[in-house]
């Protein structure tokens, strides 16, 4: 995957969000590409949103504790540089990585997280599902069960890593960990509550994130792979 950012000239509108759809892609190459993208960007870089599904993988955040990984079995565990504890990614889950200059947008980290959560709540509401926040536990819950997780990193005023939204996936691997560091935390998926098409849910999330983050337009760009 190429990590060279596209730029805009000074004075040009920067209200566009570039959306890059990566399909089913292994976790580590995408993570390394996010790091490289963030390190290469400057104040004129167009913000991007990367959408991906990962093959089964557990990721452990910077402050992650080994005791929260109970029985990973054959699923790899990768130590990464985002916030938060251990979580699971697998097919049927929307993983969205907003690569956003929040300094340019004048959005603090807490407000950025709040807006991402609001976008997920909007999508759930569109399916007739009532989601909620739980104080002190970032992410979105339905009837006390976690349906979406957040884990971010900010470097030089720009974000990477992002959110994982359970759409129609196998939830069994979550039983092999303490999700997000909480023993006994139950997780759920959107397909339990409403008929859902994965691609449609992804499109709804893009629209909601773009609105919450204040972009004037969204453009899908070609996924460049080396």
Shape: globular
**Count of DSSP-assigned helices:** 4
State the distance separating the first and last CA atoms. Answer: 5 Å
Given as residue ranges, the uncertain stretches (5+ residues, pLDDT < 50) are 7-14
Helix/strand structural class: alpha/beta
Instruction: Give the overall average pLDDT.
Output: 90
The portion of residues forming beta strands comes to 25-35%
The main pleated sheet reads as:
8 strands, mixed
Helix content: 10-25%
State the total count of DSSP E strands.
Answer: 11
Radius of gyration (Å):
17 Å
User: What string, H for helix and E for strand, traces the elements in order?
Assistant: EHEEEEEHHEEEEHE
Strand order of the largest sheet: 7-8-9-10-6-2-1-11
What do these coordinates show?
By secondary structure, the chain is of the alpha/beta class. The chain has 4 helices and 11 strands; from the N terminus they run E-H-E-E-E-E-E-H-H-E-E-E-E-H-E. The strands form 2 sheets. An 8-stranded mixed sheet has the order 7-8-9-10-6-2-1-11. The protein has a 3-stranded mixed sheet with strand order 4-3-5, with no helix packed on it. Helix 1 links the parallel strand 1 (16-24) and strand 2. It starts with 15 loop residues before the first strand and ends in a 6-residue tail after the last strand. 36% of the residues are buried.
